[in-house]
Amino acid sequence: MKQELINLWKEMYKCRKCISAISLPLPFYINIEKYDRVLFIGRNPGLPHHGQYSNETHTKEFSYEEWMKRYESGLKVSNVGNFYQQIARECKLEFDNFCITNICKCSFENNRELTQKEINNCLFWLEQQLVILKPDSIIALGKTASDVLKQPYFNKYKIFHSLHPTYLIVYNQSKMNFYIQKIAEFINKNKK
Fold first, then answer.
1. Which of 22, 61, 147, 174 is spaced 20 to 30 A from 16 at the CA atom?
2. Could you name the CATH architecture of 2-190?
3. pLDDT (0 to 100) of residue 62
């Protein structure tokens, strides 16, 4: 699986289909040795903020290994990273047991909503990731990811649809523990 993922990452990283993207593609985060077939899928990578990662991460080309180190160090200290870590604790797993990806692999001005064309540009990449990763559990984070993952192609996967953690953190903190608990139950139920 490792070489397949590295090859896919390299191909994704070359993609320039979305001319309005303001970043290079940010394909996914995974610790291949620890992956436990749990996949989180969001809308698209957010812009760097709160020390998460630098603009350089979004605009400079890096090797696969450099990219994974940069993404991990930023993600683990972010509010969203804390959400993943709380779920991992509830499941008696580690953050590194999860793979984190997005419907669209690029960032856009002001974190705007994606167009259907931008979503379609990246569906091939997502489908390829699913073939390689063979997830037991997929957690769709937010409306865009949920809407895309309701398409017939994805019916063969076990998917939990959640509010996005950023939405929960900013607008609905009172439901955060509810979603963490429900996601953990879903992951535990689907473990093989």
1. 147
2. 3-Layer(aba) Sandwich (3.40)
3. 67
Domain boundaries, the chain: 2-190
User: Which amino acid makes up residue 114?
Assistant: L
Residue bearing tokens 């955060």: 176
What is the reported pLDDT for 55? 46
Residues in Cβ contact with 111 at an 8 Å cutoff, skipping those fewer than 6 apart: 44, 46, 47
Cα distance between residue 101 and residue 166, in whole Å: 15
> Which residue is it, tokens 């903020």?
49
User: How many other C-beta atoms lie within 10 A of the C-beta of residue 42?
Assistant: 21
Structure-derived torsion over alpha carbons of residues 136, 142, 145, 149, reported in degrees to the nearest 10: 60
The two three-digit tokens of residue 142, written as one number:
């937010």
Number of Cβ within a 10 Å radius of residue 151: 9
Name the token pair of 131.
């073939």
Closest CA to 185 of 162, 155, 169, 164: 162
Q: Which of 179, 134, 141 shows the shortest CA–CA distance to 158?
A: 134
Distance of alpha carbon 84 from alpha carbon 168, whole angstroms: 13
User: What is the pairing mode between strands 28-29 and 98-102?
Assistant: antiparallel
Question: What's the token pair of residue 45?
Answer: 């990578």
Give the mean pLDDT per block of 10 residues along the chain (192 residues): 84 84 76 90 71 47 71 75 90 90 85 90 93 96 96 96 91 92 96 82
